[in-house]
């Protein structure tokens, strides 16, 4: 069912919330008449933080205007006349509003559609207990919403009690003033004749006695009202704190954890709209209760009555201030993290958001946010509230930004778009630690006031750890540090402590997540693939997955110590595979054409039972980012079959000629393991032959893969071909074609054999 149809069936508070989404910035009539078109557009595909996406937003704006104009033109008859005028007016209005900033239209529509979806989902959860939100936590969401309803009722109850107290106190003051007036009259009786004085004094004394009895009784009643109201506020604040703990310490922390895992290739952390809605409700209710407590304080000062209420009110004031402070400081968050591998002299961006900024009217005096890079030790000192003397560990350019309020979405955020790390100051390294293991963080801080300067907040938040590099060659080791930190850090840790050892299955999960994300594939690492990786990491020969379940792998084994007999680490090898796959072999992996994670002996065992010409693709054990072809064929030097292995191809080779073309060139490769004709698998990726004359009549040359099998002196004793020699002709032709025209033919005799 279309979202708009479901949204129109909302009732009560949900319907009011839905209606409040619309106004002059986006009329509800536009939503109604263009519902199908609006829901079909790729709003989520546009990155609001990327100014280069503005042309896509402009295209959507133009499409919206055209659809409105078309809808207006189709209105016929007397009833359609007014609608035609109205829709035409909306088209002009929207064009005028969003033409200068089309990304704001995208922001507005995304917010509307997301909020409608949330409201519809919540309504569905309430009516169907068996169903729930996408994340599968219907009970928790229902519990949060039920608690908010309970808090609303409690806050309304204390508001009613406060009004009752106020009215009672006002009447008490009137009666007290009447008592003072009677006392004044009694004092003035001395000046009148005795006979008259006795008569009047008797009546006044009677009225005074009656009033004093009433005042004493009513004073006790007022004190009781104050005490009961304070106790109700205690219960409300306790529930508010509990609700805040659920939202901030559970839901928001979980969002931050998803954000951290997204840095390793995990699923997106999701939007913040639901969390912001909850935090705004919290802020609203906390502020209402704070104002109520302040009014009770005013009443107490206006009419002091001895008792425990004053001390209780002081405690309530401190509690509610503590709760609002915790909410504000906890909801100053990083919506878009800076890159975790940060290269100096390179532009980068980040977005900081205050989830309660709109509700507390912080945007009325927009605060400025400052970004600073600090070391791990400085981050530790900061969290201990130690004086860091405004130290930093480097210089960030364009590191100040004013928070902007987006009225259509109600978000208050600061978008740092052109920051650049000019320099970095490194600390002394410990033991074998390299520069790519040193962690920094970007500190974002701001200061603002709420409630007419009643409360002033100095808020700070730290980014996920970043590793600073100065050259691209450091990227893979820096990525290893980030991956280990993102995968294995614990919530609430001391910056930036991670375990030195983890269980092998934990690392498998992180590697699989990273691999699927980088290769952009639903085909992750199989159990056999993970066994191969375990064998490599632990120098083991066991093929049983259960043998590795309880084994631990250390950081040193992961990316500090070289693999036995190699000059690279486990991670460097694995990262090389990822780079090769995502740059050149993504499609072949997704097709299942690459087995990849096999050693030479496994390949031989698999191929020897297959017909000659059967081949498979496996990653090289000896070369980072290498892949080799193994195939079974006759040995021309002996009367037996054997498995041959080409020297590995790398990214450099595939930038000259693709894998599909190379396999097509090699006629002795017939079937991809186990038995697929190679044409069925690779032909659609091959470069079409080009025999036509180009330019001024010349035929374009082609490079082909050639391997000589029979009596080839380049064949080593293990059946491997050295591509450094077999590709001589291809490389010479390539170099020849790159030469300037005037020198190409002068050296022809030395380039082509």
Automatic annotation (TrEMBL):
<dbReference type="Pfam" id="PF00017">
    <property type="entry name" value="SH2"/>
</dbReference>
<dbReference type="InterPro" id="IPR001217">
    <property type="entry name" value="STAT"/>
</dbReference>
<keyword id="KW-0804">Transcription</keyword>
<dbReference type="InterPro" id="IPR013801">
    <property type="entry name" value="STAT_TF_DNA-bd"/>
</dbReference>
<keyword id="KW-0805">Transcription regulation</keyword>
<dbReference type="Pfam" id="PF21354">
    <property type="entry name" value="STAT_linker"/>
</dbReference>
<keyword id="KW-0238">DNA-binding</keyword>
<dbReference type="InterPro" id="IPR048988">
    <property type="entry name" value="STAT_linker"/>
</dbReference>
<dbReference type="InterPro" id="IPR012345">
    <property type="entry name" value="STAT_TF_DNA-bd_N"/>
</dbReference>
<dbReference type="InterPro" id="IPR008967">
    <property type="entry name" value="p53-like_TF_DNA-bd_sf"/>
</dbReference>
<dbReference type="InterPro" id="IPR036860">
    <property type="entry name" value="SH2_dom_sf"/>
</dbReference>
<comment type="similarity">
    <text>Belongs to the transcription factor STAT family.</text>
</comment>
<feature type="domain" description="SH2">
    <location>
        <begin position="589"/>
        <end position="689"/>
    </location>
</feature>
<keyword id="KW-0597">Phosphoprotein</keyword>
<protein>
    <recommendedName>
        <fullName>Signal transducer and activator of transcription</fullName>
    </recommendedName>
</protein>
<dbReference type="InterPro" id="IPR035858">
    <property type="entry name" value="STAT5a/5b_DBD"/>
</dbReference>
<dbReference type="InterPro" id="IPR013799">
    <property type="entry name" value="STAT_TF_prot_interaction"/>
</dbReference>
<keyword id="KW-0727">SH2 domain</keyword>
<dbReference type="InterPro" id="IPR036535">
    <property type="entry name" value="STAT_N_sf"/>
</dbReference>
<dbReference type="InterPro" id="IPR015988">
    <property type="entry name" value="STAT_TF_CC"/>
</dbReference>
<dbReference type="Pfam" id="PF02864">
    <property type="entry name" value="STAT_bind"/>
</dbReference>
<dbReference type="GO" id="GO:0007166">
    <property type="term" value="P:cell surface receptor signaling pathway"/>
</dbReference>
<dbReference type="InterPro" id="IPR000980">
    <property type="entry name" value="SH2"/>
</dbReference>
<dbReference type="GO" id="GO:0003677">
    <property type="term" value="F:DNA binding"/>
</dbReference>
<dbReference type="GO" id="GO:0060429">
    <property type="term" value="P:epithelium development"/>
</dbReference>
<dbReference type="InterPro" id="IPR013800">
    <property type="entry name" value="STAT_TF_alpha"/>
</dbReference>
<dbReference type="GO" id="GO:0005634">
    <property type="term" value="C:nucleus"/>
</dbReference>
<dbReference type="GO" id="GO:0009653">
    <property type="term" value="P:anatomical structure morphogenesis"/>
</dbReference>
<keyword id="KW-0539">Nucleus</keyword>
<keyword id="KW-0963">Cytoplasm</keyword>
<keyword id="KW-0010">Activator</keyword>
<dbReference type="Pfam" id="PF01017">
    <property type="entry name" value="STAT_alpha"/>
</dbReference>
<dbReference type="GO" id="GO:0003700">
    <property type="term" value="F:DNA-binding transcription factor activity"/>
</dbReference>
<dbReference type="Pfam" id="PF02865">
    <property type="entry name" value="STAT_int"/>
</dbReference>
<dbReference type="GO" id="GO:0005829">
    <property type="term" value="C:cytosol"/>
</dbReference>
<dbReference type="InterPro" id="IPR046994">
    <property type="entry name" value="STAT5_CC"/>
</dbReference>
């Amino acid at each position: 069912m279309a979202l708009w149809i479901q949204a129109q069936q909302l009732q009560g508070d949900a319907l009011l919330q839905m209606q409040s989404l619309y106004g002059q910035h986006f009329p509800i009539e536009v939503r109604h008449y263009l519902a199908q078109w609006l829901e079909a557009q790729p709003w989520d595909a546009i990155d609001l933080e990327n100014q280069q996406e503005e042309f896509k937003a402009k295209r959507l704006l133009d499409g919206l205007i055209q659809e409105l104009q078309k809808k207006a033109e189709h209105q016929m008859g007397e009833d359609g006349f007014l609608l035609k005028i109205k829709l035409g007016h909306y088209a002009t209005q929207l064009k005028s509003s969003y033409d200068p900033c089309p990304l704001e239209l995208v922001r507005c529509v995304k917010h509307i559609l997301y909020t409608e979806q949330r409201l519809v989902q919540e309504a569905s959860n309430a009516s169907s207990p068996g169903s729930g939100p996408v994340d599968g936590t219907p009970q928790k969401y229902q519990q949060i919403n039920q608690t908010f309803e309970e808090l609303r009722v409690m806050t309304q109850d204390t508001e009613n009690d406060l009004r009752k107290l106020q009215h009672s106190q006002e009447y008490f003051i009137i009666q007290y003033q009447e008592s003072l007036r009677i006392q004044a009259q009694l004092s003035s009786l001395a000046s009148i004749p005795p006979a008259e004085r006795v008569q009047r004094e008797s009546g006044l004394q009677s009225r005074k006695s009656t009033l004093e009895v009433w005042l004493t009784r009513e004073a006790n009643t007022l004190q009781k009202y104050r005490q009961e109201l304070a106790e109700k506020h205690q219960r409300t604040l306790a529930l508010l704190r509990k609700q805040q703990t659920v939202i901030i310490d559970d839901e928001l922390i979980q969002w931050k954890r998803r954000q951290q895992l997204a840095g390793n290739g995990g699923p997106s952390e999701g939007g913040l709209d639901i969390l912001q809605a909850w935090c705004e409700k919290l802020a609203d209710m906390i502020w209402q209760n704070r104002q109520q407590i302040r009014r009770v304080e005013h009443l107490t000062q206006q009419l002091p009555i001895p008792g425990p209420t004053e001390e209780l009110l002081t405690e309530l004031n401190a509690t509610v201030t503590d709760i609002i402070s915790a909410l504000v400081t906890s909801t100053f968050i990083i919506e878009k993290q800076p890159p975790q591998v940060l290269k100096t002299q390179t532009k980068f961006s980040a977005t900081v958001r205050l989830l309660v900024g709109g509700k507390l009217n912080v945007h009325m005096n927009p605060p400025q946010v400052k970004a600073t890079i600090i070391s791990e030790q400085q981050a530790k000192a900061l969290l201990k509230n130690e004086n860091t003397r405004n130290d930093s560990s480097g210089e960030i350019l364009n590191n100040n930004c004013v928070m902007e309020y987006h009225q259509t979405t109600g978000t208050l955020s600061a978008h740092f778009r052109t920051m650049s790390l000019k320099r970095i100051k490194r600390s002394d390294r410990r033991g074998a630690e390299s520069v790519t293991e040193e962690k920094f963080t970007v500190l974002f801080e701001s200061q603002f006031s709420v409630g007419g300067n009643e409360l002033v907040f100095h808020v700070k938040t730290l980014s996920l750890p970043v590793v600073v590099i100065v050259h691209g060659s450091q990227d893979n080791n820096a990525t290893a540090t980030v991956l280990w930190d993102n995968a294995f850090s614990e919530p609430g840790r001391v910056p930036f402590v991670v375990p030195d050892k983890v269980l092998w299955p934990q690392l498998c999960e992180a590697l699989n997540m990273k691999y699927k994300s980088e290769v952009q594939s639903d085909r992750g690492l199989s159990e056999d693939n993970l066994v191969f990786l375990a064998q490599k990491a632990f120098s083991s020969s066991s093929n049983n997955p259960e043998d590795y379940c309880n084994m631990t792998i250390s950081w040193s084994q992961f990316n500090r110590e070289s693999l036995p007999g190699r000059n690279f680490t486990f991670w460097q090898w694995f990262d090389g595979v990822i780079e090769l796959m995502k740059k050149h072999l993504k499609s072949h992996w997704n097709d299942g054409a690459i087995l990849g994670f096999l050693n030479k002996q496994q390949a031989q065992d698999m191929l020897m039972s297959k017909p000659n010409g059967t081949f498979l693709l496996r990653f090289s054990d000896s070369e980072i980012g290498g892949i080799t072809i193994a195939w079974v064929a006759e040995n021309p030097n002996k009367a037996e079959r054997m498995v041959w292995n080409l020297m590995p191809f790398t990214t450099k080779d595939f930038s000259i000629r693709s894998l599909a073309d190379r396999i097509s060139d090699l006629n002795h490769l017939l079937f991809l393991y186990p038995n697929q004709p190679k044409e069925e698998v690779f032909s659609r990726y091959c470069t079409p032959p080009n025999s036509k004359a180009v330019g001024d009549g010349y035929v374009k040359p082609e490079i082909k893969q050639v391997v000589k099998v029979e009596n080839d002196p380049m064949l080593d004793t293990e059946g491997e071909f050295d591509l450094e020699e077999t590709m001589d002709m291809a490389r010479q032709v390539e170099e020849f074609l790159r030469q300037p025209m005037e020198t190409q033919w002068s050296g022809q005799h030395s380039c082509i054999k």
